[in-house]
Amino acid sequence: MNSNPLESLLQRLEDDPEQDLARTLRQIVDWLRPEEDRGNIAQVIARIERLVLALADHPELRARLRSHLEQGLEEARHLTLYASGPCGRPGRRGWATQLA
After folding, report:
1. Gap between the Cα atoms of 6 and 11, Å rounded
2. Which has the closest alpha carbon to 62: 25, 30, 26, 14?
3. DSSP 8-state code for residue 40
4. Is the dihedral of CA 85, 79, 83, 64 positive or negative?
5. Which of 2, 22, 47, 73 is 20 to 30 Å from 87 by CA-CA measure?
6. Rounded distance, CA 65 to CA 27, Å?
């Protein structure tokens, strides 16, 4: 196994291009915010910048990952995500009034 965490992430993404969107996002977020650095925002920003630069060096992977994320997000059931569960909660006001 590769000792460089970023290279390991890129290799996992390269090895399994057909994985589901949730698994792809989980791998990226787990690399961006490792357990030992959860509260270190500067470290997360630095990792985002490193990931962007690494993907610039791997244009085929970047294009596949972009396509995979776009397709997955287009097909996602956003209403369920934002209206229930841990990501959202029903509002106290009527739906239309929350748009204003």
Report:
1. 9
2. 14
3. -
4. positive
5. 47
6. 12
Q: Among all chains, which residue has been given the structure tokens 């990226």?
A: 28
Q: How far is the C-alpha of 61 from the C-alpha of 69, rounded, in Å?
A: 12
Site of tokens 């841990």: 86
Q: What pLDDT score was predicted for residue 1?
A: 46
The closest of 1, 15, 3 to 58, measured between CA atoms, is 15
Q: At what angle do helices 5-15 and 41-56 cross, to 10 degrees?
A: 50
Tokens 């204003």, located at residue: 100
What mean pLDDT do residues 22-28 have? 85
Provide the residue type at 83 as one letter. A
Report residue 87 as tokens. Answer: 């990501």
